[in-house]
Amino acid sequence: MTEEAWGFSGEIKDNLLKRLRRIEGQARGVQRMIEEERSCQEIMMQLAALKSAVVQVAMTMLSNQMGACIKQEISRGGDPDTALAKFMEVFKKFS
After folding, report:
1. What is the CATH number assigned to the segment(s) 9-92?
2. Could you tell me the pTM of the whole model?
3. Contact in structure between 94 and 55 (CB atoms under 8 Å)
4. Domain ranges in the chain?
């Protein structure tokens, strides 16, 4: 999809990619911790941080996508309420 379709500016896209790379590193770190048989508490703390990072990426994407999706629906002559309902379906998965 194009930047216009997603509604991501170059800055947001760069930020998302940077966060995803950091998440990738955190996931590898958790794998190492398990291999090293680190304490459950340490691993769970890292998993909590990983979960939080993933949620932040998802929320950034969702907040940017909502506006773009509604604009697309309206430009095609569609109903904004339908676009909002579709967005809410996805959003509920992260609540």
Report:
1. 1.20.58.1000
2. 0.72
3. yes
4. 9-92
